[in-house]
Amino acid sequence: MPNRRAFLRLTAAALATQAFDTAQAAQPMHTRPIPSTKEPLPVIGCGTWRTFDAGDDPARRRELAEVLRALFAAGGSVIDSSPMYGSSEAVAGALLAQSHTRDKAFIATKVWTDGREAGIAQMEQSLRLWQTDRVDLMQIHNLLDWRTHLATLRDWKAAGKVRYIGVTHYTSSAFAQVEAVLRSERIDFVQINYAANDRDAEARLLPLAAERGVAVIVNQPFGGGSLLAGLRNRPLPDFAQEIGCTSWAQLLLKFVLGNPAVTCVIPGTGRREYMIDNARAGIGNYPDEAMRKRIADAVA
């Protein structure tokens, strides 16, 4: 039987969860259309690099189940992973199956290997790990052997095994190659790095994606984590309240979403409270160019 302190702690957690769910129901997360189909996609998702690599640890799996619960309660859906991320696909797939929430998830994963047969084998393994016969988005991770895999992805899309196809990268040094793919190929999504202190994508890639009708998923919106970590002990600027931000994380995410070419941003987290905080960047107003400059100057 729990003691008084434990009971009060559990009661407070339950009330906080109820308040969060009520607030999110009253003000659902914004969506943006996937250009190739006009399907609405919630603007805040969840990355799984490192954070969901929990293996068989039951305590960590319980924590991650709460992360997904918070994502869905906020109206989010995108869960992004990769075979590169250790046990992340298996963990996320098991949690969706156990909670019967596959229908709430937009599963985005990747192929990350050389060669056609190896790529097919890896993607089939991903389907098994996600415990599904179809994923929403299959991406070519870091453009590895992209010409080979793109042909397979088109076959899989035609067969209904994937709904959308795309390419990814995480560093600005690869933007010229990403740009060449966007110009020469028809794809649904591109995933790239972009943050208030990492703005190279603004020059060519984001305008090109908009021109070509390609949805943009942004990774590393916190500058790979280093930007947010460096801001934790600095006071939030007063102007943040003008766009409804109560944390640095929300301000950095709203900076990214202030660019209309961005469809969704996927900050990685393994903690429920961070998922809740991130999701709040998916409601309210977004900064105009003048405000975006103020944000960039504030984090410089």
From TrEMBL:
Tell me which domain of life the UniProt entry assigns to the organism this sequence originates from: Bacteria
**Pfam families, per database record:** Aldo_ket_red
Q: Which residues form the NADP-dependent oxidoreductase domain?
A: 44-291
> Span of the secretion signal?
1-25
Coiled-coil residue spans: none
Q: What Gene3D superfamilies does this protein's entry cite?
A: NADP-dependent oxidoreductase domain
Annotated transmembrane regions: none
Q: Which UniProt keywords apply?
A: Signal
Which PANTHER family does this entry report, sorted A to Z? Answer: D-THREO-ALDOSE 1-DEHYDROGENASE (PTHR43312), NADP-DEPENDENT OXIDOREDUCTASE DOMAIN-CONTAINING PROTEIN (PTHR43312:SF1)
Protein name (record): Aldo/keto reductase
